[in-house]
Amino acid sequence: MTEKNTIAEEFQEAPPRVSEWRRFWRVFLQRRIVIFGMVVLLILVIIAIFANFLAPYDPYRGEMEDSLQQPNSTYWLGTDIQGRDTLSRLIFGTRTALMVGFVTVGIAAVIGVTLGLIAGYFGGIPSMIIMRIMDALMGFPMLILAMLFAAVLGGGIQNVIIALSIATLPAYARVMNGLTLSIRENDYIMAEQAMGSSNIRIMLGHILPNAIPPTIVLITLQLGGIIMAEAALSFLGIGIKPPGAAWGAMVNDGYRYLSQNPVLSFAPGIAIMLVVFAFNMVGDGLRDALDPRLRGIL
Amino acid sequence: MAELLQVNNLVTQFKTESGLVKAVDGVSYYIDEQEIVGLVGESGCGKSVSQLSVMQLISAPGEIAGGEVIFEGRNLLQYEANGPEMRSVRGAKIAMIFQEPMTSLNPVLTIGQQLTEMLQLHIKMDGDTARKRAIELMSMVGISGAENRIDDYPHHFSGGMRQRVMIAMGLSCNPKILIADEPTTALDVTTQAQLLELMKDMVQRFRTSLVIVTHNLGVVARYAQRIYIMYAGRIVESGTTKDIFANPRHPYTMGLLKCIPRLDEEEGTKLVPIEGLPPNLINMPPTCAFLPRCSYRLEKCAKEPWPPLTPVNGNHYIRCYADTKEKSK
Question: Which domains are present in chain A?
């Protein structure tokens, strides 16, 4: 069988397989700044999970006689006007920030991706209705829209999440809509139809897996923005309400005592900056690692 | 052998801004069980569209405007295009292989995932059985070391190997008919020959009928039992392979055959191309579409509409007024 032999030879000559995962990690961890971002995020996640054990004091109740202390050996980052330990509040604020970030991104991504997929796959009237609503939402800056919803719904972590989800959802819908439009034109989608697959099977089993890498990058890049927006809402007093520990609210609490105890505002400010920076760096690294056009170059 | 698929008067049209394009205009043909049928024509003559219409895979702005597709006693065109009945025919009863093996497999799923998907969907196999069957199918189409290669991604495979996988996928659910839409056009000649042999062996083994859609007369000459020649959305000549090659009667078929070199010709014989271009399918006149390029034309041809397929000899039909037999001798 000459035919079998050619295939066998081809098989033997094939270069050793490079695992996709190994390539992903190599490119992803190539830049030091990405590793730094990753480490910062890991530490923050650990802090958020173990906040109860790590915080030296109760973040919600302070001793009035310890009010507005400078950083010292008892209170490492000092205390606020009510005598609450800044470090403990910062640690619990990490939990708030990350929870708002991840939950919001989860909700917005699931709903946005679904809407974009439906609009892109079916086109026509469903696309008209969905994408025009998304365009209308996109017409407003994200923060303004979030402020509007937060103000209408009232404060509290749950309402902040809802407001931010609605405000960021159009980005996912738009990206997914574009991806679906291009992916569905591929021959393998037609081949899949010719094999008797239903629309839902094609959408979830064939279009979605092709759209995941760009969506993951969008998610990481959005996380920073959402945490920033949550801080802004809390700073303006329409986000997480006292006594809840939120970085934005802490900056606001602290800035009245800026001259007496600058750490009160600076500590949460630096935390916000750090987390946004870390998310953006990780997003950048992911984009490099997941972009098929850079395959072979990096 | 019983008739398996009968297509009657199929009309598929595309509504475009410059007018109505009848890509398939009243095409009728049949396929017997375990038969290999060739559908030949140049680019844009409607051969692929006619096959996609049978599967109801025409999307807007195209629409199937008329005709019937009788398969196992039911008219497939009565089913909703994406309804469960049509989906249970696609892949399971009538499978299709496409032209471009490089893009016909989903790049983010492994070969195994794509092969087992069909088995699980149509034959309701469980995961392990489907995987075993997929490995078996891969070995059958000549992919050695199938157990090791089943978890590879399509980009690990060459074009010829991907087309082998497509053949395995097409036959995985043991369909009654396999439609191969220009299955070898994108491959080099040596691979073409291997794949055509493979397809022939496989359809014999699976007792499947095969429709080879191609613009290459050489491809069908060796494998097909019957041939349909299409021109401008219609079938202009049909007959057994012997009829078509030894005794072509339609001027178009005769022209096509003059364009390909033959071994039994005297040395130095020049190939004769068909003059002119295929017609624009927008708003076609009722007269014969081949008329402007025809060297056998009669006065009658310009006045009267295109004749229906008329028998010339037994199962050999042409759609022409001219008595080409006289002239060609």
Answer: 43-54+74-294 (1.10.3720.10)
